[in-house]
Structure formats: C-alpha cells, structure tokens
C-alpha cells in the first residue's frame, strides 16, 4: 500500500513536527526553559479566560479551578524550571576494573514527537501537566484536548500556538474521528488520560507502530475509615476529595469502608460536612460543579436506584445537577460498587473488621489511589501494603500536589508515571554511552583455548 493511501488529514502536520524535532533544536536546555516559561506566562496572562472556560464546561468555581488546575500546572512548571538542568546532566557510571581505562555515562535524550491526549474532567490540568514533562525532556508534541470540554479545548487551541514554538507544538481539536486519524500516525510516544475501554483502543493502535504508551486510567479508588480515625478530619478530607468537580476526579474516593463501631457517627459527620461545604441546597452553591453531559448524568442517577440514600439523591438533568449523595449500608455486590462512579455519589460499606475491606480491595483491579484514615499503627502498616497507584494515609487526593511524588496507575488503573522528575524520565530515553580505553589486552578474543591460562588468571583477579 502506498504512503499516500496511509495518509490522514494530519500527516503533513505531524511530519512537520517530526522534522523540526530532527533538527535537535528542542534538545537545547535554553529552548526547553524558554518553552516552559512561555507556558507559564500563557496561564498567568490568560487566567480569567481559562477560569471562564472551565466554568462553561463544568461549572467549576474559579477558586477551585485555580487551586486544582491552573496553580498545580504553574507550580509544576516552576519546579521543572528549577531542576531541569540537573535532570538533564549526564550521569557517570563506574566501569569494571578489567575494562579500564574506559568511561561510561547515561545521557537523557528526548523520545521524539509525542501525542498527548487530554481528558475532559480536568481539561486544563490533565492536558498541560504531561506537557510540562514532555517539554522539560526536549520533545515536540501534538496536543489533543478533549472535545467533551469544548470551551477549554478551543481556548487551548487558540492560546498554545501564541506562546509556544509552533514548529514544535501544535493543537488538534476534534472527537473520535480526529483521534482515530491521529492514532494512525507515527509518534514516538503516546500519553493518554481517560477510561480503560478507550485505553485499550489507544494501545491497539499504538501497537501497529510499536509506539510506547502511557495510560492514566483511574479506577475504583477506595477509602477506609477505621474506628481509631479522627472522624471529623476524615470527613473533611473525604468530602473535599469526593465532591470537588462534582465527583468527576480520577483519584476521588469511589466508596468508603467504615468500621461498624463508628459507621453511624461518621455518617452523621459526613452529612454535616457536606452541608458546611455546599449549604442545604448545593444546587444554588457557587462552589458546586455540574456533570459534564446528559449521558453521564443518566448513568450516575441509575447507580442510585434501590439504594439507601442518607443525604442528597436529588438531580436535575436540565441543569446537569446531581446533589452530593451519601449511600449507606451498601452491599459490596450491588451495581454501584461494580464500576467507577465518577460522580457525586459516595457509597458507605459497613464492615465488622477491616480485613473485609482489605480483602475486597485486593480482589479487585488495582486502583489509582487508596486512602486509609486511622491512628492505629497496625492499620496504617497494613494500609501501606495496598497495591495501588498511590496510598494516602489520613489524606485524600492531595498527593497530586507533591511534585517529587510520581503519579500514575498500576495494573488496571494504568501504567507510566509523571509529575516532577518522573515526568522528565517518562518522556526521556536513558541512553548508555560507553567509551573504551586506548589499551586492549585482548584476553577475551578468540582463540580461547590458547589463552586459557591467561583468562583464568584474569578472572581470579577481576571477577
């Protein structure tokens, strides 16, 4: 089949980016820092416009949008600017005595041209955060924002070319057809944030070109509240993590296992905390967001069917509103426990012993995060052994703000880590360079029989 037959509407665009990366200009440290500063300047100079776009897409409160999206990206850029020089330096590696004189080092070179596919739930953060590591490592990129957050997507398409080097970075908008065409192109790495079903499609397409893929997929992030926990603190942190962005957060607690001894009290505190955050009528609260579209609204409402609703439960499809909802006495086998809710519905599962909770977590797909609230040291030690993308002890979600903690999934919640140096490493190839010395003993060359005694003597000395 001819090359023309394989071409897509984006072939020339992608090739131009690849050609520019081939000039090696993107590997210059000064160029990388310039691009990072430009990205940060874009956020600073257009802060109001981005907050307006987030409000249009998700009814995101400006303070929440700044805290959980703009500020996180900006601080990550600051962190990268401070450390990228050190990250980029070659690392010396010692060589065995029998290879002296020689030298070895690891050089971090960019993978090449990346495809970054953003997500709709945090359309700014989850599009630009991987781009920070991509730029720091010296790559070029095609950026594909989510079409499900159209206002933010359009603004990124308008602003990124104004600030970044257009020869190295371009934005392509669109939905499934455009993404399908992009996946036919040859990239050096693909970064995708989204659902597991779409992640499988991304992997299948990437396999045709043997392109490495990073998948950030989420999953059913569990929380555990032990009887030794500070219940008020647990409620504050769980409510914030669960109901920010109307529950549409990949690391939000999906459900909570509560020890029977404190289940009633914790439910009471949880309900009061929701009222403290969003008033008795969250639909009128300026701090409470909306569901992204009618499809997801219908899906989430269906999960509440036949459940015991302790608070919330109200919905308005025309307003894309679902109240912050707490379900109690939830059966672990019920439909609401079988999928990632990705909405403002929090099932509480009462357990007689925490071993029930730990066993349930271990039998399911590894989550992107798991949270345990306890003072009991034995419970905390057991919690640290949960297999998850991250484990939070007496906290939820805020590990995202620690730049030196790698962020990513494991197993069903994805693979590949970024943020800080992990993001730099993700978009880099650690290339070994070995330089042989000027002297060659030749003991390892054939014919081996004639040099047997010499070889044995050398082995005793050097190995």
Sequence-ordered SSE layout with sheet pairings:
Layout: H1 3-6, H2 11-21, H3 29-45, H4 47-58, H5 62-88, E1 91-93, E2 103-110, E3 113-117, H6 125-136, E4 140-144, H7 150-163, E5 169-171, H8 176-183, E6 189-193, H9 196-207, E7 213-216, E8 222-225, H10 231-243, E9 255-259, H11 263-278, H12 294-303, E10 308-311, E11 315-316, E12 321-322, E13 325-328, E14 345-351, H13 354-363, E15 370-373, H14 377-383, E16 391-393, E17 414-415, H15 420-426, E18 428-435, H16 452-462
Parallel strand pairs: 3-4, 3-6, 4-5, 6-7, 8-9, 8-15, 9-14, 13-14, 15-16
Antiparallel strand pairs: 1-2, 2-18, 7-17, 10-13, 11-12
Description:
By secondary structure, this protein is of the alpha/beta class. It folds into two domains: about 5-215 and about 415-430, Aldehyde Dehydrogenase, Chain A, domain 1 (3-Layer(aba) Sandwich), CATH 3.40.605.10; about 220-405, 3-Layer(aba) Sandwich (Aldehyde Dehydrogenase, Chain A, domain 2). It is about 40% helix and about 15% strand. It contains 16 helices and 18 strands. Strands 10-13-14-9-8-15-16 form a seven-stranded mixed beta sheet, with helices on both faces. α9 links the parallel β6 (about 190-195) and β7 (about 215). α3 (about 30-45) packs across α7 (about 150-165). The longest helix has 27 residues, at about 60-90. The termini are far apart.
